[in-house]
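ARCHIVE CARD
Drawer: 12
Card no.: 0347
Subject: one protein chain, sequence and derived structure
Cross-reference: see card 0346
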Amino acid sequence: MKSIISSLFAILLLGIPMSAYAQSQRSQEFKDKYQLKEAVVLSRHNIRSPLSDSKSDLGRMTPHQWHKWSAGKSELTSRGGALETMMGQYFRKWAVDAGMFPENYVPTADDLNVIANSMQRCIATAQYFTSGFMPVGGVTVNHRYTPSKMDPLFNPQLTKVSPEFVAEAMKQINAMGGKKGIVGINEAIAPDYALITEVMDVKDSPMSKENDPKLKAFDNYNTEIVLEKWAEPSMKGGSALKELNSASDAFILQYYEEPDTVKAGFGHKLNRDQWSRIAHIKDTYQDVLFTAPIVAVNVAKPLVQYMYDELRSPDRKFTFLVGHDSNLSSVATALGVEEYEVPNAIEKKTPIGSKLVIEKFVGPDGEEYADLNLVYQSIDQLRNMELLDLDNPPMIYPLSLKGLTKNADGLYKMKDVADRFEAALRAYEEIP
């Protein structure tokens, strides 16, 4: 009881809505009223090493040495694996408490489906999660290719591109920056650019000493977007958002991995708001590339279809899909999730290891209902590697769907959620 009271007090101090803990602390009255039948989970991989190594431009942007990673570039780190095991253990306790599975359950191919993108960090995340979720279950992690290749299910590539599509996509992307469009997007986060270049001590970097012309990119706010068929939305090199995104990404990962926060900040004492500002660069990069509505329904179509099929599978109880932040961003946008920023995280949209969880219930009236939450480890849970259980759950942030109303128990009608999936699939078909 003492731990629960402490948790509630902490929630009040943080200003987190009580509903944010609904999934982990639902009342017995709720459990008696609604029976959990299925959950479909779309997860981002856990902590990896940066996509670029210290010998690349990332290393030349600063005189400092980046963290010595426990894994090769782009691969899941040892800490990431341990944290994902802890998340799997929490989901086991949650599933047992909800009556979905008994303890030490051995699943069948019908009731459990685990599939990962064929990238090492995704396969490894799924392996670590399942070792915590069903430690004696002998769970098979399905993936299409040998590591590391992109599976079309998870590859956020454009499969429909026409002049009309590009025009509409650029209109929607430019709208994010107001009257100034792309330049406006960059100008809005210019203070974040100034902060990250200061923390990296760019002025003393090898790039600066060699008067590398690539440094001019940090002052270029006219980011060029590339939208091509069978490719991910991307940015041409040579702009601040493109080049500083890789530094933002590396700093976020370094902050999670390095116990000494001053060392993580290259000797700078940064508060959590400043870390969030550094992460905001990467969040903006993701938003620009993957959250324009017409782009989102284009790149998310395979996952939207797959998740919808899983939700309609009569024997399925738990589906676990492991991909990337771009997958979570595009699927959420395609389904019409209301704009949000999660608390107690430096990444505000899709924190490392975060999971979009769709639960399907049967109510006392025999009707099916659904709930949507984003589940993720808090800053302290990540940095301190805190064990998770029902008394110390991960953060659970309720997501809302535009135009839909939840009932008094905080649930949507499953039919309305199904209609939203179908609307996203129709939107893809309507792309010119």
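Annotation on reverse: The first strand starts at residue 35 and ends at 44. The chain has 17 helices and nine strands.
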